[in-house]
Design brief:
The complex is a heterodimer of chains A (494) and B (512). By secondary structure, chain A is an all-alpha fold. Chain A has 20 helices and no strands. Chain A starts with a helix and ends with a helix. Chain B is 74% helix and 3% strand. In chain B, β1 and β2 form a beta hairpin. In chain B, α4 packs antiparallel against α5 and α7 runs antiparallel to α9. Chains A and B meet through α17, α18 and α20 of A and α5, α6 and α7 of B.
């Protein structure tokens, strides 16, 4: 096989995704307003890309002159992103259609964003990494403001855009420092240049600080989280679901490629910052979430808390000796958590979406009153998602938490303290997640409660998310080989 | 070992039953009730078959028989391993017994969302049985948490006026304890892995039991386990969720809560905390003995002044469960026997007392002691059986309640006469609160409140007799023939005490 065909094969899922996005635009031009067609093309194209990801196989040697690689990490991350895209397209119409928002543009914009995430997942060059990041976030700003006649949506989008642009600029500045110090933008070469470094020179330290702040904005770590609640609350609900998972997991993919793979030799210098950020992020996220009466804001703060839990895996990686099993477990925990989080959080937002399928349903938690009786299936799956977010077995969220906590315990030292902080946080979180269950099952529905929107794509989306949440909780073993292979890729770097 | 995986079968019966009920039409209340009862009875019959085929002399695998093991998450050596010894067995049978009794007792009171209620109860049964059977620490934790959710729903949906506060308090207390226990389980697994270089067996109870963790880890892990179990028991000062939960829970919820859920804590100490962390257990035993004594006395004193029947029985549980932890942590054979007997007997007697309170609540929608009076004249059968269980709870010799507490006294006296003397005080208080309560409820002239109820105040119905009779029979049988239980648990108790390697059981106590 020639170099070119290998490269094309490695890029095939990405190309398919971009082609699907373009096809949706074209289809939308030919038959404007045909939501079913646009959505159908989007889902089918994404499925084809997913099958490619599963079928192509992986190879740890980079292609295209060393800027992109399809290794097990790329495959796993791509699969997450594509699943996020499919679920979002399935549940979105229930919200968009009653409000007169077109699905075609939505699908195309979403798929372009997902393509950006897929660029990040396989990037082997700092510039490609940044390119992917921008391709990811720009459509995200558009999606946040998708309900353009809604003041909150516009406000959220502007906040998201401004802070997002600033953080991108800060991040790019950090990349420039790194490039200035190492003289290369290739990830492998950056890692080589940093290996064996004694102490950090001022310039590099500056770069590290800027990069850390940049990604902290993107994953919404406290104290860089201020854009999150407004952007999440204002966005159309299916967009919020996507924003809380897609860009967050993509930002963690960025962290894996940049901080773990390229800057891996400096792990010991970053770990304290990660531990502190993680503690702040989960604690503040959970405490503020308790006080929220708006379900979207509550889930926004809870997603901040989940960022904190994922960072526990990162902290374990940083605190453990390089290349030790604990380091691998930390990364594995982070990856497993990302998969679990994708299913359960999109699932939870999907139920909110279904609830708001009739315009006029507010995002107050009280709109869940009596849902368990009004819509037994929606109530049951929402309970499942909330239990998973809390971390109660047998759900994916439980095993994900167990895995990051195990890695933190293995890493020892302050990481172990972080593990204890994480479980205490999980207990705090139970309080506000269960509050929704209280409303669903223990309060009566108001007399004017509107029925749920009940289309088959919505049902399919809910069922897929529920099955993912449950199966990964009962049989987590089926995902572990993938996460393990992905984690090992990152640790192979010298 | 027989060819049939009977333990898995017992676990599957209520689970499959719950799934069957999930697809039944929701308005067919009676159908749902009878299916649930049938499923619970089937599980009970299977557990009796297990009892019949159990051989106390058989050593099996590390003292456990009927062991089944299937790899679950091989990457971490996590296995689905279940097995029983005598202690597990009696608690399994207690669970299956109380489950069908609770379901039967819910036939009349529960008319709302019967489907969800029965599903919750059967899932609850799966979780409780799983805890008593699990021989893999990860599996144990999963079952331990599964118990939480249905109980949360049972209190929160079908409970009293203040149910939401009570159920959240119940969940948050339990969750804080159990999540720290999760960290401890993971830490011990990792300690094993780093010592042996392999995850195989890192969560396996039988492997870890004799492993001998280093002292620092033992202390930290023991404290985490202790918190989880102490909250569940509940030990003073972690008991404050219990009265709220009991008062708000529906009758059957209280029966299961007192009858089985509290036993999970005592069982956890016996099965996990002591054998896994023997050194730390000895270090903390004096503290736990003191806490147990406080619980015994405090529970009894607080019971005296309770105006509400359910609250009184709830606080008396704190006192009775104090005997369980006391009996466990004096590390003495009779005392530990007594603790296990006390767990079973408290399950029977307190379960029955809650049923009795449920009977009067069903008719009056009130549980205030001050508004009752003269029930003996109007409802003699009810007053008689209530009195029977009341006396059993006080510890009348010849009934089951006496045996457990007596053995704990004897065992504790051998170790610390002082502790035994303090615990003996409770005999006085116990008589005070129970007899005084019964006097106010059953004797004297009929209260105006009850008079106004007129014909609504009927004597026991057939269903109520059906739920109370087996408990009464067992209370009598175990009171007269405690050897039936002792034969089953003797082997495991000896093994636990031998595992502590205390040599001299009293050496660790700073005072006698």
């Amino acid at each position: 096989m020639t170099m070119e065909t290998t490269g094309l094969l490695a890029l095939a899922p990405l190309i398919t995704m971009i082609a699907t996005a373009i096809l949706v635009v074209v289809v939308d031009m030919i038959r404007p307003g045909d939501d079913r067609l646009a959505g159908g093309v989007g889902v089918v194209g994404s499925l084809v890309a997913l099958i490619m990801v599963m079928g192509i196989g992986t190879d740890t040697s980079p292609v295209l002159g060393g800027v992109y690689v399809r290794d097990p990490l790329t495959a796993l991350l791509d699969a997450i992103f594509i699943v996020v895209a499919i679920l979002t397209i399935l549940v979105a119409p229930a919200y968009l259609r009653p409000r007169g928002l077109p699905l075609g543009e939505f699908t195309a914009t979403l798929l372009f964003a997902i393509s950006g995430a897929m660029v990040i997942s396989g990037a082997q060059d700092l510039l490609i990494l940044f390119l992917g990041l921008e391709l990811l976030v720009l459509p995200g700003y558009m999606l946040a403001g998708y309900a353009k006649r809604d003041g909150y949506s516009t406000e959220g989008a502007i906040k998201y855009f401004l802070l997002g642009s600033f953080s991108s600029a800060i991040f790019l500045f950090g990349l420039a420092f790194t490039w200035g110090f190492t003289g290369t933008t290739r990830i492998a070469e950056v890692a080589d240049a940093l290996t064996g470094l004694q102490g950090i020179p001022a310039g590099l330290a500056m770069g590290l600080a800027l990069l850390t702040v940049g990604v902290a904005f993107k994953i919404a770590a406290v104290p860089f989280h201020y854009w999150t609640p407004d952007a999440y609350q204002g966005s159309p609900t299916p967009v919020t679901g996507y924003l809380s998972v897609g860009p967050k997991v993509a930002a963690f993919a960025l962290i894996l490629r940049l901080f773990v793979e390229a800057l891996g030799p400096l792990q010991g210098d970053i770990v304290n910052v990660v531990i502190i950020l993680s503690t702040l992020t989960m604690t503040l996220g959970n405490l503020v979430a308790i006080t929220q009466d708006n379900i979207k804001r509550m889930l926004a703060y809870s997603s901040i808390a989940h960022t904190g839990y994922m960072m526990v895996g990162l902290a374990a990686y940083g605190a453990a000796p390089a290349g030790s099993p604990a380091a691998e477990q930390g990364l594995q925990g982070l990856l497993f958590y990302s998969v679990a989080y994708a299913f359960m959080n999109i699932g939870a937002f999907a139920v909110v979406t279904a609830l708001q399928g009739r315009p006029g349903v507010t995002s107050q938690i009280s709109s869940f009153a009596g849902l368990g009786r009004r819509a037994p299936l929606a109530g049951a799956v929402m309970t499942l998602f909330l239990l998973s977010l809390t971390g109660i077995p047998p759900t994916a969220g439980f095993f994900a938490k167990a895995l990051v906590i195990l890695s933190a315990v293995e890493a020892g030292g302050w990481a172990t303290v972080l593990a204890v902080i994480a479980v205490l946080n999980a207990a705090i979180a139970a309080f506000y997640y269960l509050r929704v269950v209280v409303y669903m099952y223990m309060r009566e529905a108001p007399a004017d409660a509107k029925p749920l929107s009940d289309s088959w794509p919505m049902r399919l989306g809910l069922v897929v998310a529920a099955i993912g949440t449950l199966v990964l909780g009962i049989l987590p073993g089926i995902l572990l080989p993938s996460t393990q292979a992905a984690a090992q890729v990152l640790l192979l770097v010298p | 070992m027989s060819g049939i995986p009977i333990l898995t079968l017992i676990l599957l019966v209520p689970l499959v039953g719950a799934l069957i009920i999930a697809v039944l039409p929701r308005h067919r209340h009676d159908l749902i009730r009878y299916v649930a009862l049938g499923v619970a009875l089937l599980a009970f019959v299977l557990s009796l078959a297990l009892l019949a085929s159990f051989d106390p002399a058989a050593t099996g695998v590390g003292g456990f028989t009927f062991v089944e093991s299937v790899p679950w998450i091989p990457a971490f050596g996590i296995e689905y391993t279940v097995g029983i010894d005598g202690i597990s067995l009696v608690l399994v049978v207690l669970t299956t017994l109380l489950t069908w009794i609770s379901i039967l007792a819910s036939f009349k009171p529960i008319n709302e969302r019967v489907k969800e209620y029965m599903i919750s109860f059967l899932i609850l049964e799966v979780g409780m049985l799983g805890v008593f059977m699990a021989l893999d620490l990860f599996l144990f934790y999963v079952f331990w948490e599964i118990v939480l959710v249905p109980m949360y729903l049972i209190i929160g949906i079908w409970g009293g006026p203040n149910r939401i506060y009570a159920t959240l308090k119940f969940v948050l207390y339990t969750l804080i304890g159990s999540l720290l226990m999760l960290v401890a389980i993971l830490a011990t697994a990792f300690a094993y892995q780093s010592a042996t270089g392999s995850w195989n067996g890192a969560f396996d109870y039988l492997t870890l039991r004799g492993f001998g963790f280093d002292t620092a880890l033992q202390v930290a892990a023991f404290l985490a386990f202790f918190l989880a179990f102490a909250i569940k028991v509940p030990m003073w000062p972690f008991h404050t969720w219990l009265p709220d939960a009991h008062v708000e829970a529906p009758t059957a919820g209280s029966v299961i809560l007192a009858g089985v859920l509290l036993k999970l804590g005592g069982y956890g100490f016996l099965r996990f905390a002591l054998p896994l962390f023997p050194d730390a257990s000895q270090t903390f035993a004096p503290l736990i003995i003191v806490l147990s004594l406080i619980a015994i006395i405090y529970g009894a004193i607080v019971s005296i002044v309770q105006p509400d029947l359910k609250k009184l029985v709830a606080y008396s549980s704190v006192s009775h469960m104090g005997f369980v932890t006391l009996g466990i942590f004096v590390f003495q054979q009779q005392a530990m026997d007594g603790a296990i007997l006390q767990m079973v007997n408290h399950g029977l007697i307190t379960g029955a007392l809650f049923l009795c309170v449920g009977v009067i609540y069903e008719r009056t929608h009130d549980r205030t002691i001050a508004r009752m009076g003269g029930l003996a004249a109007k409802t003699p059968a009810y007053a008689a059986i209530f009195g029977f269980f009341m006396l059993a709870s006080v510890g009348l010799p010849g009934l089951a309640g006496f045996v457990g507490e007596f053995l704990v006294f004897v065992g504790t006296f051998a170790v610390s006469p002082l502790a035994a003397a303090i615990a003996a005080l409770v005999m006085v208080f116990g008589a005070v609160y129970m007899l005084w309560m019964f006097q106010r409820v059953a004797f004297g002239p009929m209260s105006d409140f009850l008079k106004n109820l007129g014909h609504h105040l009927s004597d026991l119905t057939a269903i109520e007799v059906l739920t109370l009779a087996p408990l009464a029979a067992l209370t009598l049988i175990f009171g007269l023939f405690p050897g039936l239980l002792l034969d089953l648990i003797q082997g495991p108790v000896d093994a636990i005490i031998a595992g502590l390697a205390a040599g001299d059981a009293v050496a660790f106590l700073p005072w006698r």
